Amino acid sequence: MSTEFFQCGRYRFSRRRRPLVMGILNVTPDSFSDGGQHATRDAALRHAEQLIAEGVDIIDIGGESSRPGSAALPLDQELDRVMPIVESLADCGKPLSIDTYKPEVMRAALAGGADLINDIWGFRMPGAVEAVAAGQFGLCVMHMQRDPQTMQEDPHYTDVVAEVASFLEERVSTLRAAGIDTARISLDPGFGFGKTPDHNLRLLGQLPSLAVDGLPILVGLSRKSTLGAIIGGKPPQARVAASVAAAVCAAERGAYIVRVHDVEQTVDALKVWWAVRQESVAPDGQHGE
After folding, report:
1. 15, 256 in Cβ contact below 8 A?
2. Where's the Pterin-binding domain (predicted)?
3. Phi, psi of 192 (to 5 degrees)
4. CB atoms within 10 A of CB 106
5. CATH number of the domain to which 80 belongs
6. Over the stretch 155-183, which tens digit does the pLDDT of each residue have?
7. At what angle do helices 240-252 and 197-205 cross, to 10 degrees?
8. What is the reported pTM?
């Protein structure tokens, strides 16, 4: 039951346009790739300005690291990190996404001007569905095996594609039962969240199988260890080209949103991919927006 648009809070995006580029804005001291670089309010706002200048479509603000082995962050600390950024960027002209699984943070961020909740727990925490049921805010439902502390300890599946698809289908049913409009929902297979590199590549290769009812898919492979394994163990900051290639591969397989660190390079690559696909050069590389 796919829709013609994706409702993202104050913003509505056509499903007939090039993939959306979600830029990562981590306000954490311990993110795997850019930890500490944007941890202060001023640094975070400067980076947001850079993302906007580079053509970002959605800004994803995260106050708690979800890298493998990371510890949970107390509620008050997460609120202290993200709320000043949300309030400062509420009128920046771009949708704001909040990367959180805590219902209290969801409520506060949405009240403060956020447009989308990006939940690594797939809205499984008690109170999470209730926190997002009302309104027109966008939702991203992600699959994760176990939790960030243990997810990379020998992840195992009988059929990773079927199991991830089944999980996403169940979560979509739960959200619909709560009265949430399908147009608000996007899906994330959770690359690197309880998966080996081979699991990740199988999911990417069979991405269309994960589009439950034709809902939009978000892919987050930017700078992740799977790409490092493919290109010979290069560190995260040296995985830019690989990350752009992964974004284009995801777009080719139907991804609607790509979550990335390197916005300008990804936007340019997707504009070229889209122009070739459309056999036409359109303003900003987009059609039907």
Report:
1. yes
2. 19-271
3. 85, -5
4. 24
5. 3.20.20.20
6. 889 999 999 999 999 999 999 999 999 99
7. 40
8. 0.92
